[in-house]
Amino acid sequence: MNIAGKRQLVLGATFAIAAAGMALAPATPSHAATRTATTLASCPSYAVTYYGKTGSCVKLAQQLLIKHGYSVGSSGADGVFGAATLSAVKRFQSARHLDATGVVDDLTWKALLRFGGTGSACVTKTYNEMTVPQRLGQLIMVGMTSGGQSTVHGLVSNYHVGNIVYLGGWSGDGTVGRTSDGLQRLTSNSATDGVAQLIGADQEGGYVQQLTGAGFTKLPTALTQGTWSSSHQQSVAATVGQQLRDVGVGVDLAPVTDTVPQSLGTGNGPIGHYYREYGYTPSVVSRAVTNVVHGLNSRGAIATLKHFPGIGRIANNTDTSSTGITDNTMTSTDAYLTPFKSGISAGAGMVMVGLAWYPKIDSANQAPFSSKIVTTILRGNLGFHGVVVSDSMSAVAVQHVPVGDRAVRFIAAGGDMVLTGSPGEVPTMLSAIRARVHASSTFAWQVNHAIHRILTLKAQHGLLFCR
């Protein structure tokens, strides 16, 4: 059915199509279709190929809705949507902040199809189909403020950036949801090869909560949360996870996993000063971190343990200072690593590396540039196999390192995703990474593994589309 030149699948109580055995269009070479609507008489070929069956578009959509846990009622004939199915489609669209019109356009098909593709074969296939610039774009997470959207959109379209973090404060679930939807609409063949954006936000509570207003629970400080019962900690985290997922945010850059000694307290610039710690002992922090990770995981949100290996014993804030950021106590067997181990055991998908110095572990390299910290301790001793993200590489603490070198050295140390709050740094970082890939087979191997870890995390959370 052709409506005003657009090809759409319209769901209605009495709308029927031709016989169930109708022919379907053959698969096209692209695994990420252009963002135009599709016709009722011809399902998008990528949908048919992905699902591995033929039949009517309506039946296919019904089967996908069921996969997502929606009831489609008992409408009988293949090709006819009853009221229950139409309602399910609208609820599905609303939950993902797609226009709840009942029109299954390309974006809705993509969302319906994102229930599978979690295996290594999907990751390998996606990786092989991407261009080199598209692969490298997955290594970057860039900060986006409400006033900087056009700049970040350009980075996605022209530099293939694959991950976004909301910064600067955002108000209202409607605004955030529409913004997330807009970011996903940019994931075209030419931009990210159809790989969806991993979108994150700092949703800790207290002084650090990027998403506020309607639709977002106002959270107290972590120090208050640390006094709650385990069940309440987990329940609130589950609520936060659901609220994030409802607006298209898949990553919570939380929980703070740092332990601040009570003797230092608010004298600790980055954490204690803002009451961001769950408590003053590793055991109290471990309990809270475990519960928060479980709660976020229960709603499909990715938890991020931060700031490895811990910035609870430094004086100044690495965001704003390059001095007073040395922990002269931390060792490779420090008790303050215990909360990170607990969070990893609980299933955290990401770990953020802080920007402090730890001379008893590595006197020559700052944490994000230290293979002893990132590879030996985090990946080796603690057994973390997920995605390692940096703290913001636009922070004052790393200004002594050239922009491109920050990205290269972090990945060389064992990191995966370079986070920067300054969009203007992205082209330089990507250029430096690509140059180093060409110059060093060892670094190229590290980049390859980093991209695979990121794609694996995306696959686990329904952000890859595999035929």
UniProtKB/TrEMBL annotation:
Gene3D superfamilies: Glycoside hydrolase, family 3, N-terminal domain, PGBD-like superfamily/PGBD. It catalyses: Hydrolysis of terminal non-reducing N-acetyl-D-hexosamine residues in N-acetyl-beta-D-hexosaminides. Pfam families: Glyco_hydro_3 (PF00933), PG_binding_1 (PF01471). The keyword Nucleus does not apply. The keyword Hydrolase applies. Residues 132-457 form the Glycoside hydrolase family 3 N-terminal domain. GO terms for molecular function: beta-N-acetylhexosaminidase activity. It is an enzyme of class 3 (hydrolase). Keywords: Glycosidase, Hydrolase, Signal. GO terms for biological process: carbohydrate metabolic process; peptidoglycan turnover. Its EC number is 3.2.1.52. Residues 1-32 form the signal peptide. InterPro entries: GH, Glyco_hydro_3_N, Glyco_hydro_3_N_sf, NagZ_Beta-hexosaminidase, Peptidoglycan-bd-like, PGBD-like_sf, PGBDSf. Residues 55-112 form the Peptidoglycan binding-like domain. Belongs to the glycosyl hydrolase 3 family. This is beta-N-acetylhexosaminidase. It comes from Flexivirga endophytica.
